[in-house]
Structure formats: C-alpha cells, structure tokens
Amino acid sequence: xxxxxxxxxxxxxxxxxxxxxxKAIAKHDGLVVFIDxxxxxxxxxxxxxxxxxxxxxxxxxxxxxxSADRVKPVCQHFGTCGGCKWQxxxxxxxxxxxxxxxxxxxxxxxxxxxxxxxxxxxxxxxxFYRNKLEFSFSNNRWLTTEQxxxxxxxxNRDALGFHVPGxxxxxxxxxxxxxxxxxSNSIRNAVKKYALQxxxxxxxxxxxxxxxxxxxxxxxxxxxxxxxxxxxxxxEKELFDLLDFLKITFPQITSLQYxxxxxxxxxxxxxxxxxxxxxxxxxxxxEKLRFKISPKSFYQTNSDQAYELYKITxxxxxxxxxxxxxxxxxxxxxxxxxxxxxAKKVIGIEYIEDAVKDAIENSKANGVLNTExxxxxxxxxxxxxxxxxxxxxxxxxxxxxxAGMEExxxxxILTILPEKIVYVSCNPSTQARDLALLQTxxxxxxxxxVDMFPHTAHVENVVLLEQIKSCH
Length: 472
Known about the structure:
Blueprint: E1 9-14, E2 17-18, E3 24-28, E4 31-36, E5 43-51, E6 55-65, H1 91-109, E7 132-138, H2 145-149, H3 151-155, E8 159-163, E9 171-173, H4 184-197, E10 212-219, E11 225-231, H5 236-249, E12 255-260, E13 273-278, E14 282-286, E15 289-293, H6 303-317, E16 324-328, H7 334-339, E17 345-350, H8 353-365, E18 371-375, H9 378-381, H10 384-390, E19 395-398, H11 407-416, E20 420-425, H12 428-438, E21 442-450, E22 460-467
Parallel strand pairs: 4-6, 11-12, 16-17, 16-19, 17-18, 19-20
Antiparallel strand pairs: 1-5, 2-3, 3-4, 5-6, 7-8, 7-10, 8-9, 10-11, 12-13, 14-15, 20-22, 21-22
C-alpha cells in the first residue's frame, strides 16, 4: 500500500457507499476513505486530514463528477452545521441506505437469521419534523474564512445556535433552521436580537461564565409551545425582563420557564426548573391519549413518526387483552399507555425518576387504570423477586438507549422467556448484538425500519421475536 500523508489530496475517488455515521465511503489502494461532503456516485478529489493503517478521513476538495442522486441542500448552514449531513442526498436514496444499514448490522454484527426486512417507513415531510431543539449561546462563535476577513464580523463573536462538530467551544450562529416549524426560528432570532440590543453577555464555555447559556424550544401538535431559558450568571432582573419580552412578543407560548445552570454541562439533570408564565408542561396528543411533557421528559422528537412507530410496536405485539406486558426503558410511559387498552396489564420500568412520575401522571390523566411504573436501574429492578411479585410477562416491549440492553437484562429475559419480544431500537448495531444473544431461544419474525430523522444517518428499527418452542 502506498503511504499517504496528512493533508494530501487523493484524486479521482469514486464514492461507493455511505457509513452508519453518515460519511461517504471510497477506496484507494486497499485503503477505506471516509469523506465529508460527498454522496454515493460522486467522483471527487479528497483532502485527507487523518490517516491510519487501514483507513483515512477527509473532505471533498473538488468534485469531478456529480452523482445523479445529489440534490441541492435547502439550508444555508449545510456543510458547517452537523445536524443534517445528508441534505445533499435524494431522500428516497437516504431511505435505501438506512434499510441497508439495518441489513448490514444484522448480517455482519449479529450474524442473524431473519426474513426479508420490510420497506422502511419514511417521513411524509422530511423538514420541520422535530418537536424539540436546544440552542446554545456563545461569546466565541464559529467564523468562516470569509467572516474572519471581515473586521465587523470578528468584533461580533456572539452566537445562538448549534455546536460545530468536533469543536466543543465553537457555536455556529443559526439564522434559519429547517428542523423545527415556526415559531421556533422567530423565537430564537428575537431572543438573540433582544440580547444584543440590551448588551446581555453570552456564555463562555471555557471560563464557565456569562449570562445566557441555552434556549430550549419544544412544540406539540396541539399547538402548545414550551420555552426554557438557562442562565449561568444569576442576574434576576435581566432574566425576568427577557422572559417578559418573550411573554409579550410570543403570546402563543404556553409554558415559559427558566433555570440557573452553573455546572459543567448543559443538561437539565439535577437542576431546579421554575415556571415564569403558563404551565410547567405542554400537552401532546396521540390517538385519544394526551401526554404531559415537562422540560426533563423524554418524548420522541418526531411526533408524527413516533405515532407510526408506536402503531407498529402495538401491531407487532399482537395483544388480545389477556396479556401481562413488561415495557422496559419505558421513559414517560408513552408506549405503555399507548398499548394498555389492548393488554390486561402493562408494567413499565425506567431509570429516570422524573420520567416515571410523568408516566404515572399520563396514565391518570388518560384514565388508564392497568399500568404500573417503577423507577430504578433496569438490571437491578428486573430480578427474580420483581418477577415473582408482579408476574411473568407474556410480552416484553423494550426500547433501550443507543447502547442497547445490558447483558444482565438479556439474561433475565432468557430466564423468564416471554412468548414475544418487541425490540424497538435507535441503534441497529447494538440491537443486532442483543438479538444475537436472544436468538438461542427466539427467532425473528418481522423487521420494520422507521425513519425518524431525515437527512441524518440515524434509523429506528422495530423487531418482533417469538419464542422458538411456540413457533409453528
């Protein structure tokens, strides 16, 4: 293999695939080259910025031939913002590659035996699909080469937007984002304009100081809107003046909240979030159910596709009304409440206590009487004593985080042997790993990918497993 140095241009590479992280893939003299800014079918020159023995990473230096599957990105921030890396790839092609990702994970990682994967369920609207965005304030915004030449732009370093990929202390100032529908852009831009006009300081991530830190915007199909302003330096008058401005300018905000965060990260974990105006939550509808969403609640960020995802989960479970169901990693109990009317009883287990409180309240608010929720570490809660007390489940629904299920949880499932398992995953790679452990006693009946996040490499996947001894 020829030696390739850093910042060396590789010429005439044909892009043949796309990785699970969203980078294009080409090959050169036995070397796998991961490329930012290209799509399959492109022929490009690549500037290599990282080189290892078996692979290299780089960016498009020059496009020799454009792929027939290329499209023009709609967002002015494409290429710098890391949120929608596939905007330059035709949406139908995106869906094909996501289905292929599931297939590759199942065959290469899990070495699984499975029937044909069902066609992926795409979004009807591949833009403005998110119901939650969190923006960061920074006094050290990311500058393009052109902006660095401009003295005016160098003097104004305040930004409100997203972190630049790979740079924890640089924020890309966002003018218009295509991820969340209005009034999201209007609220963000109004807050930034107000802050600049009133000389409010933006957060300095290195010094961990400054006034304005983050801005959370959540929306619901009900029309309700939540805004949470997070500040680092505590300046009560300045904060309340800003909140009054938001209250007057955007009367459609139904939940206006704030929090003081001077800790080392932006998460709301451990913070006291206070309500300034309206309720401390917003409401989301799904079929005849209404779900309470608080600032710390987990709720699928694509409401329309979440509904489709949960319908698939319910259909795969095939409930008759006589089953005891365990809903593992239940979150705020969305799936549990959604399937409860079709089951005898649903027991949900979740690590985050606040989420469990929301799950219980969601059941009460919707008149769902056959659910019960427990908070704690899954591998510790789901033990022999718990099952003896609450009963052996006929069906297990599991929707773990990206890391997948802990091995101890899988061992417990293999001990209690429910008739069916419905495995919902946001990471087909860890899902394939877990399915490989389960296939000693289960076979895969159905696999349904769902696209929750257009223009990204992420794909949700639902798998139905049936206990082998009960198969015909």
